[in-house]
Structures are given as C-alpha cells and as structure tokens.
Design brief:
356 residues, alpha/beta, Isopropylmalate Dehydrogenase, 2 domains, ten-stranded mixed sheet, 40% helix, globular, binds nicotinamide-adenine-dinucleotide, binds 3-isopropylmalic acid, binds manganese (II) ion, D-malate dehydrogenase (decarboxylating)
C-alpha cells in the first residue's frame, strides 16, 4: 500500500478553486487504485488568514508541514496585502525553508491548437526548464539607504553560492544524462559580470563530468527570442531563479497560457517535503467567478504522482489532459471553451475513469 500524507494549502483567489479540482483528481486516482491511499490535511493559510491574524502561516507552520509527503499549493496573493509580504512569508518561505532548490517546469504542448506559434507542432515544443529555486536573484538580501533623500539608493543582491549553483547544474546534467537529452544553460554573463560569469564557469566545470551530454549555452535575451521562434532548439534547460521565473511564463504563453502550466518544487534529498503547484498566481481579475482553468493544478498532480514513484498515474493524468484538451467546449474560457472550473474538473475525472 502506497499511503501518502498530503498537505493542502489552497491559498488565495483562484488557488482555492483549482486545488479543489486537483483534490477531486487525487480522490479519483485513489478510487481506481486499491494500492494507493491519500490522507489530506487542509491548511487555511494565505492572505485572508493574514488579515485576521497578522501572519501568513502559523508560527510553527514549517514544523507542522515537515511530516507530510508532499504539499499541494494553489496560489498566494491578494490585492490588499503587499506581495512582498504575502509571498515571502508563505510561498518563498516554504521553498527556502524546505530547501526545494529544484523547480521543474515542463514547457510541453499538449494539444497543437494551444500554441500561438505559427507552424509549430507538439514535437517542436517539448522541453523541461530546471529553475534554480533557492537563491540567486531571490536571495532576499539587499539594503535601502537614505530613504526619502535625493541620495536614496536601493540594493537587491543576487547570491550565487558554489553549493547552490553547483547542485542545480549537477541535477540538470543528471537529468539530461538519464533522459539522453541536450542540456542548455541560460545565463547573462555579458552584463552580470559576477553572478553569471560564475554560473557559466560552474556549468563548464560540471560539464567535464558528463562528456556524454551535449550542451549549449545562451544569453537570456537571445534565449527568449528562440523560445518563440525556434522552441525546438530546447530539450532540457537549466537557469537561475529569476530567469527561470520569467522564461516559464513565456513557456506557458507558447503552450496554451498560465491555465495549463505546472511546476514542482523539489527537495531531491527528500529531507523535507516537496511542493507541487500551478505556475500561475491567484488571478484576482477572475477569482470567485468559476472562470479559472484547473488544468495547470491538475498537471501538478501528475508531477506529484511521478515524485511518489507512481509513474503510471502521472502518465495517465498527462494522457487525460491530452484527451480533455480535444473537447474545446468542455474547456474554460481562457481556452475558448464555455465550461467552468468545476465543470472542467468533473469532465477531467470522467475521462480519467474512462482511460482505466
Ligand atoms: P496571475 O498568474 O495570477 O494572472 C495573470 C493573468 O493570467 C491574469 O489575467 C489571470 O486571469 C490569468 N490566469 C492565471 N491563471 C489562470 C487560470 N488558471 N485560468 C485562467 N486564467 C488564468 O499573475 P498576476 O496577475 O501577475 O498576479 C496575481 C497575484 O498572484 C499577485 O499577488 C502575485 O504576486 C501572485 N502570484 C502568485 C503566484 C504563486 O502563488 N505561485 C504566482 C504568480 C503570481
Ligand atoms: C512563480 C511566482 C513566484 C516566483 C512569485 C509569486 C514569488 O511568480 O512561482 O512563478 O517568482 O517564483
Ligand atoms: Mn512566476
């Protein structure tokens, strides 16, 4: 029996709506497989909790989460709470506190009709971005000097440690070797004359341990252009925290939008729980209207199953995503459909059952 304890943090806005659909999918998996059992615990943390308590999560929140096999998170962010508070005290606190230094974000076209790129097929858009997820531009370090004076200066420090840089690049090489794929490093050493020079140096050093892995290196500006014009250049990409953040929204744009983009925050050593979430945010512009596309959150369930060693279920969920995307009228409005968040969640579960 594969029994897993899952912490649910639906969070804010559409996070609550899409996690509900993901839980339906998990329960469907449970009902179809007698060897799998999930135990869910709900955590009401987020901006509403903050407005009531002054905290984004319980004081001992990380302790409470530490015994779970995974965390399933919706989204964080609310118009009346400053983003740098809400995100740093919940989402980024978990990523950093649990040393989830690997962020796996597939850029994969699940249905040919979803890409705005003319003439690009499913084979052309199928790669994995491995984003550094613990430091870099997101070190949280900086300074605010002479506030309000004409001499005011603000510093935001990028921190690229030897350990942090080497471990993400090594993880990417291992993955490239395992999958027999080309590995592309995306950096920016021409302008960022410390951090990215170091990044490139570490990439080249680690590469000598993997002579069988083909490598390429791009500057992030040029890489952005190639994401759009020639996405077929990429197989596995490794990049820094901020570049990975921006490039994966671009990746979402070429594969159907944020409604269908997923990300896994992994602590590979399994010392701490890993966290699964859609790439999108709380989308206050559509929250509470049943308009949110749940497929990104459902795809996160596939990543979670893969992480749990249930590859057959991650494959089945991905296959069902492909099946569902054929039925345009059953989709949410962001994909040209007429359905609701709930309606699409139900339709997905129906199709998943049919696959069995
Ligand atoms: P967003 O991802 O919430 O929304 C961007 C646009 O995409 C909006 O027009 C939204 O309606 C649309 N969209 C997003 N997800 C969708 C879905 N599932 N279905 C249909 N349409 C969808 O980004 P934003 O507007 O820049 O940020 C809103 C808030 O979310 C901010 O507070 C931000 O900090 C936060 N945020 C949180 C996370 C996270 O928790 N992981 C990620 C990104 C942004
Ligand atoms: C993401 C989000 C977060 C990030 C924000 C909300 C801090 O944009 O998961 O892509 O920048 O990592
Ligand atoms: Mn982002």
């Amino acid at each position: 029996m594969n029994k897993k304890k899952i912490a649910l943090i639906p969070g804010d806005g559409i996070g609550q709506e899409v996690i509900k659909q993901g839980v339906k999918v998990l329960k469907t998996v449970e009902s179809l497989d007698e060897n799998i059992e999930f135990e869910f615990t709900d955590f009401p943390w987020g901006c509403e909790y903050y407005l009531e308590t002054g905290k984004m999560m319980a004081e001992d929140g990380l302790d409470q989460l530490s015994s779970f096999d995974s965390i399933y998170l919706g989204a964080v962010g609310y118009p009346t709470v400053p983003d740098h508070i809400s995100l740093w005290d919940l989402l980024l606190k978990i990523r950093k506190g649990f040393d989830q230094y690997v962020n796996l974000r597939p850029v994969k076209l699940l249905h040919p009709g979803l890409t705005p790129l003319k003439g690009k097929s499913r084979e052309d858009i199928d790669f994995l971005v491995i984003r550094e997820n613990s430091e870099g531009e997101y070190s949280g370090k900086g300074d605010w000097l002479f506030e309000g004076n004409p001499e005011e200066v603000v510093l935001q420090t990028g921190v690229f440690s030897r350990k942090g840089t080497e471990r993400i690049i090594r993880y990417a090489f291992e993955e490239a070797r395992r999958q027999k794929k080309k590995l592309t490093s995306i950096s920016k050493a021409n302008a960022l004359n410390y951090s990215m020079v170091f990044w490139d140096q570490v990439f080249n050093e680690v590469a000598t341990d993997y002579p069988e892995v083909e490598t390429e290196s791009y500057l992030v500006d040029a890489a952005s252009m190639f994401f759009v014009r020639e996405p077929e250049r990429f197989e596995i990409v490794v990049t820094s925290n901020l570049f990975g953040d921006i490039l994966t929204d671009l990746g979402a744009a070429i594969t159907g939008g944020l409604g269908v983009a997923t990300g896994a925050n992994i602590n590979p050593e399994k010392k701490y729980p890993s966290m699964f979430e859609p790439v999108h945010g709380s989308a206050p512009d559509i929250a509470g209207k049943g308009l949110a596309n749940p497929l990104a959150a459902i795809w996160s369930v596939a990543q979670m199953m893969d992480f749990f060693g249930e590859k057959q279920w991650s494959d089945k969920i991905e296959k069902t995503l492909e099946d569902v995307l054929v039925h345009e009228s059953e989709l949410t409005p962001d994909m040209g459909g007429k359905s609701t968040t709930d309606g699409l969640g139900d339709f997905f579960c129906l199709k998943l059952k049919e696959l069995k």
